[in-house]
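Lab notebook, entry 389. We have the chain sequence and a SMILES string for flavin-adenine dinucleotide, and the next step in the workflow is to get a structural model of the bound complex before anyone spends time on docking refinements. Request logged below.

Task: model protein plus flavin-adenine dinucleotide, output structure tokens.
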Amino acid sequence: MDFALSADQREIQALAREFAEAEIEPHAAAWDREHRFPRELYAKLADLGLMGVCVPEEYGGAGADFLSYILVLEELSRADAGVGVTVAVHTSAATLPILTFGTEEQKARFVPPLARGEHLGAFALTEPEAGSDAGALRTRAARDGDGWTISGAKQWITNGTYAGTFLLFARTDPDTPGARGVSAFLLDGEHVRVTRDEEKLGLNSSITNDIVVEGARVGRDRLLHEEGRGFRVAMATLDGGRIGIAAQALGIAQAAYDVARSYAKERHTFGKPIAEHQAIQYKLADMSTEIDAARLLVYRAAWLKQEGQPHTEEGAKAKLFASEMARRQTAEAIQILGGYGYTKEFPVERYYRDAKVTEIYEGTSEIQRLVIARSVLGLRQAERTLAQG
Ligand SMILES: Cc1cc2nc3c(=O)[nH]c(=O)nc-3n(C[C@H](O)[C@H](O)[C@H](O)COP(=O)(O)OP(=O)(O)OC[C@H]3O[C@@H](n4cnc5c(N)ncnc54)[C@H](O)[C@@H]3O)c2cc1C
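Result returned:
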């Protein structure tokens, strides 16, 4: 067993960290306050190859491995979790499924512009009445000659406003309820109308939209994978995607720990730094231990994925633990900073708000527990409750 990162992985990690410290972290508080999506940042990330880190070079990417991509997400999220989710959805949820399920023609056509960061990708599964129970989705792709006409509404679509490519799920067979009648389609920005910007508790530098598709006519070249097998695309995508969200949670928790640790050494009460009070020492010890544990779970899941080994259970465990850990430990960071922690003078209240969503999207904690339980009990995944997990 080798826990060391390779020279290439360390290099990409250092590149992402340097960039995040110089170009993201100094602006993160303002972007949060102003709810500003930093569109210009993604061209800079693209110049460094970070919009397609683990995409093969022949498709316009940097050709690094999946763990390198996870390291990048961790570093970006440490500076700003909104940037982290923008890149995570763009890469894991939009670009990689095209590489996994696309025809040669689809890969050559759709992947390079995404990997080069010429436009952003989005993943459109959730609907007002289909979240965890994604198999209940109602967006309809009706047969129309040799193609389909797609109509429906999707909710909470990350990157919606700026996306040039949408991986969108629609029901091709209205007579088959649940997951089996669903197919996956590749749509352009022009096929989609954004109807709303969501106001959120945190992640204010990311954009989350309601969208509608109103009779978009698409041919066979837009169908990803086989007709009626879209749920398989969605579930495989979320299997990998949730490792990215786990890395996002890890980055947020690391940022909170860094601030809490240095504050504890400087803030004095009762004649000594609070770091010398045992109650504060215990908090920092627990934070550091839980962050380490999460990191090992996240890197293991990423390694399994890049080795082509099963990673459903391990990815769910990584996301479940890392996200709940991030929520717990960002709260502890506020506690260590006392009143200052509750103010905007320090970033820990932002970390706390940002951490919460990692327990919700790409499968809630409850759904991760279902996935893990089914795996450890050897139960077959029942299609309708497979859900976003
Ligand atoms: C900021 C943000 C960004 C998002 N981005 C995207 C995106 O880009 N693309 C996209 O498609 N979606 C996106 N989503 C949607 C997200 O994936 C869903 O919110 C999530 O899957 C949960 O679905 P829901 O909100 O409908 O909750 P529900 O499914 O209604 O669940 C409500 C509660 O019931 C619990 N629950 C549900 N079913 C079960 C069960 N079988 N057993 C036990 N408990 C259960 C849930 O865990 C939760 O606690 C985003 C959401 C947010 C908040």
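Notes for the group: The chain has eleven helices and ten strands. Worth checking against the assay data. The first strand starts at residue 120 and ends at 124.
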